[in-house]
Amino acid sequence: MSASVEMIVRLACFLGVFTVMAVWELFSPRRVLKEAKGTRWLSNLALVVINTIAVRLLLPITAMAAALFAESRQWGVLTLIAWPLWVEVILSVLLFDLAIYLQHVMFHAVPLFWRLHKVHHADMDIDVTTGLRFHTLEILLSAVIKLGVVVLLGPPAIAVVLFEVLLNGTSMFNHSNVRLPAGVDRIVRCVLVTPDMHRVHHSVLRRETNSNFGFNLPWWDFLLGTYIAQPSEGHDKMDIGLAQYRDPSQVERLPGMLLMPLDSEVEESR
Fold first, then answer.
1. What span, in angstroms and rounded, lies between the C-alpha atoms of 71 and 49?
2. What residue stretches are annotated with the Fatty acid hydroxylase domain (predicted)?
3. From CA 204, how far away is CA 237, in angstroms rounded?
4. CB of 103 within 8 A of CB of 216?
């Protein structure tokens, strides 16, 4: 797969999932949003544009290119055994997802990384755009970590593209403000992080913020003891965001979002 084809596939999947979730939110919202969408969406989506440009300009290689490079030199633990391609793809996706889970835990546990990640958590509402709202430095750091994981694993390039499409799509899905029937949610969250499951992670309560770290697969939270089934206040009454950041002019406008890591309110918010 060429770089141009990869870009087209990823953009098409992004636009498709974003459109579906935005329409779903409109017709079947889970919660009443506290703030108007206009400013939030403009700022969150502007951050996506900035992040995309920054990654393209500042990183000389994509994850797919890194996978092709590693494959050409037989680097990575997956190259030690001649696995069938479908086994390599499944193993790669599972290991990538575990790596993202561990990275997410690290971004909460390490104060320096939390300074960046709190931009994501400071959103006082949660919807499809929250799944795209990450500080530019966090996106760049995540991209570098991803490159390291690619070189360490040596996955097929198709597995890298597949995982990035899945991660982007499931992030928009599980951050979206959509209503799933309770019975459907219980079944789906056995194999995929649902909006109700991940919403707990965006609670202002620290214990709930430090739970449900999965973006794609829920199994790591189940196995490693970070799973909380429901928010203590219930989904309709729970407060979203961070207790220290309740000023919309700071958390919903692009300049405030970009400057938030410079704020010294770290330990109190984590």
1. 31
2. 90-226
3. 12
4. no
CA atoms of 3 and 68, how far apart (whole Å): 11
Tokens of 192: 């995929």
Q: Is the distance from CB of 211 to CB of 201 less than 8 angstroms? A: yes
How many whole angstroms separate alpha carbon 229 and alpha carbon 197?
A: 6
Residues 152, 78: Cα–Cα separation, whole Å = 9
Q: Which residues does residue 240 pair with via DSSP β-bridges, in sequence order?
A: 203
3-state secondary structure of 203: strand
What pLDDT, in 10s, does the model give residues 4-54?
777 888 889 999 999 999 999 999 999 998 888 889 999 999 999 999 999
Exposed e or buried b per residue across 13-25, where buried means at least 16 C-beta atoms within 10 angstroms of its C-beta = bbeebbebbbebb
CA dist., res. 209 & res. 231, Å (int): 10
CA 72 to chain centre: 30
Rounded to two decimals, the pTM is 0.93
